[in-house]
Design a protein that fits this description.
The chain is an alpha+beta fold and about 160 residues long. It is built from five helices and eight strands. The protein has an eight-stranded antiparallel sheet. The mean pLDDT is about 95.
């Protein structure tokens, strides 16, 4: 499992996941820059993602939905804030309805994904910051740590293929 550390800080409103991959950072970057590759890792194995729109540029929007084992669909979106290829990118991530409109009652996170090379591997750091402690606690209660860890775990198989 590539996830090496998970921590959350209710006072700082953050969830941080660190992972290590046996691949150059350009390869890890490509997974997020290519919607077909992103589909293979965005969501745990039992909730595979389908990327609908993928405007991976500052000011752009990515929309997707995850399909559960019973065929249930859960939509979400990213609003891209910044891109620094191949070292990282930032975006807001939120829950959406079937038309990809934000669900106002659900938490939104601001995310900073960074990639650095170290000893032939890539260290990825995923930091999600929430507006409130209640929002962070809500996603923790929903299983975000387990789901994100499983999703990130799929990157190893993708880089081997």
């Amino acid at each position: 499992m590539p996830v090496t550390n998970v921590s959350h800080d209710i006072d700082a409103l953050t969830l941080t996941i660190t992972a290590e991959f046996a691949a150059p950072r350009e390869r890890i970057w490509q997974i997020y820059a290519d919607p077909r590759q992103l589909e293979k890792i965005w969501g745990p194995p039992t909730y595979p993602a389908t990327v609908v729109d993928h405007e991976f540029t500052p000011g752009g929007r990515v929309t997707y939905y995850m399909t559960g084992p019973e065929g249930d669909k859960h939509a979400g979106y990213w609003n891209i804030i910044s891109i620094d290829e191949p070292t990282g990118f930032s975006f807001t991530d939120g829950f959406a309805d079937a038309d990809f409109s934000p669900i106002e009652s659900m938490p939104v996170s601001t995310n900073d994904f960074s990639f650095r090379e170290e000893g032939g591997s890539t260290i990825a750091t995923y930091v999600s910051t929430y507006a409130t402690a209640e929002g962070l606690q809500q996603v923790l209660d929903m299983g975000v740590v387990e789901g994100a860890s499983q999703a990130i775990g799929q990157i190893d198989d993708l880089i081997k293929s």
